[in-house]
Amino acid sequence: VYPPAQEEADVIVVGGGVIGTAIAWRAALAGRAVTLIDPGTDDTASLVAAGMLGPVSESAFGEQGLLALNLHAVDRFPSFNAELESAVGQRTGLRTEGTLAVAYDSDDLVALDRLTEFRHSIGLRAERLDAKACRRLEPFLAPSTRGGVLAPGDLSVDNRRYLAALREAARTQGVKRRTGTVTTVESAAGRARVHARLTPAVGAPEAEMTAANVVIAAGWATGQIKGLPDGIRTAIRPVKGQILRLRHPAKLPPILGHTVRAIVAGHGVYLVPRADGELVVGATQEERDDRDITAGAVHDLLRDAMTAVPAISELILAEASAGRRPGTGDNGPILGPVGTGNLIIATGHFRNGVLLSAVTADAVAALLAGGEPHQAWAPFHPGRFG
Ligand SMILES: Cc1cc2nc3c(=O)[nH]c(=O)nc-3n(C[C@H](O)[C@H](O)[C@H](O)COP(=O)(O)OP(=O)(O)OC[C@H]3O[C@@H](n4cnc5c(N)ncnc54)[C@H](O)[C@@H]3O)c2cc1C
After folding, report:
1. How many separate helices (H) and strands (E) can be counted in the chain?
2. Among 69, 371, 374, 379, which has the minimal tally of Cβ within 10 Å of its Cβ?
3. CA of 358 to the centre of ligand 1 (A)
4. 138-174: per-residue pLDDT in tens?
């Protein structure tokens, strides 16, 4: 029997990045009373991400289950995003020009041939282009570009505008936002309970809140929350990424129209243009648990980006930031009920959390309604980590 709780809701969502906020919005849209708890700091991978929505580029060739999920996600994203934009009357900066992957030497060209074949084998469009055709599409590419592949189905979104729109949609749909950190989750007798350090504090140092369901979407930090099975807590790890935001000086028109990916001297670099003149250059992938910006990472990202598109040297370096991706033992997300069933976990989206946010919200909505998520989620049940 629980002592009286300070607050009750139908659903408590832990974590206010793209995953938690999308879940909270959709649960409220389905008529539930939703409280979302987030510390309200900028330590949120969703604010750092590049916003690419590419089903193939961000999953390795062998990861078939993840690829199927990513394909489901890229199909769903535009309709989810359109509904979001009309709910809040704001644009999220969805771009549909596609990704141009470019090569500089014969090894890279062979890799691009393989990528083209692979995309065709799974029914995705891909067009192999010679150097001239690449530069016709993107005139600022380096003269040393040898060829490329255009993936016209890849999308991108301005992840900051997208998260802001999700937050506004959740707010107008009645989601109550509490500032704080959840320390513990528990589940018993058909209810779930959280302990949270709230700001401002309400009476005791830790508030206790109960709900029919608690959804844990705290990104890489999910592993720090007590009460989750040890196998899950240890499966989640932070994977640091450093990324740059450049801006065009006044009067300089955007130098890129497509997302450009390149391998420069063995390093992958991507450049993601926004309609408002921002150009995102990313990203490192480091097994580290900090958000420091290092001189070496900024140097390498700029060097590789300028090798691919030399005119980048004219742009303004507006921001360098770092975030922690929620990595897991098998690179796949973790989604589904844990314990007696009224705790639901939704994390581990690693390099694809923005892409997967819409289908994650759909899957959690299905679980909250007593149904099953789309079959593409089957390999990502929390049970695989005990
Ligand atoms: C450099 C970089 C580039 C990326 N590029 C892309 C990309 O192009 N496309 C793509 O799809 N993905 C990309 N990603 C991955 C994507 O950012 C993540 O997968 C996604 O943001 C994860 O979302 P999330 O909501 O789970 O986590 P987060 O965005 O980290 O949000 C989790 C939230 O939970 C809060 N929280 C933590 N602990 C607690 C607690 N105990 N109680 C309450 N709240 C808590 C945190 O403060 C945070 O606000 C990139 C990531 C990085 C770092």
Report:
1. 9, 17
2. 371
3. 14
4. 999 999 999 999 999 899 999 999 999 999 999 999 9
Residue count of the chain, please give it: 386
User: Residue 85 and residue 91: Cα distance in Å, rounded?
Assistant: 6
Residue 8, pLDDT score: 83
Per-residue pLDDT, 1: 40
What's the pLDDT score for residue 6? 65
Backbone angles phi, psi at 306, to 5 degrees: -75, -25
Ligand 1 centroid to residue 216 C-alpha, Å: 13
CA of 204 to the centre of ligand 1 (A): 29
Q: Give the mutation target among 44, 288, 345 for probing the ligand 1 site: most ligand atoms within 8 A of CB.
A: 44
Per-residue model confidence as pLDDT tens digits over 290-329:
999 999 999 999 999 999 999 999 999 999 999 999 999 9
Distance CA 204, CA 201 (A): 7
CA 282/CA 293 separation, integer angstroms: 13
Distance CA 348, CA 330 (A): 10
State the burial class of residue 325 (Cβ atoms within 10 Å of its Cβ: 0-12, 13-18, 19+): buried
Q: What is the pLDDT of residue 2?
A: 44
Q: Which of 331, 342, 346 is nearest to 382 (CA)?
A: 346
- Closest to 342 (Cα-Cα) out of 170, 216, 226, 180: 216
What is the residue whose two structure tokens read 């969805």? 94
Spatial separation of the C-alpha atoms in residues 22 and 18, rounded to whole Å: 6
C-alpha dist (Å) from residue 283 to 141, 165, 208, 317: 19, 24, 39, 15
Residue ranges of the chain with per-residue pLDDT less than 50: 1-2
Distance 16 CA to ligand 1 centre (A): 9
* Region for residue 31 given its phi and psi (left: phi exceeds 0; alpha: psi -120 to 50; beta: otherwise): left
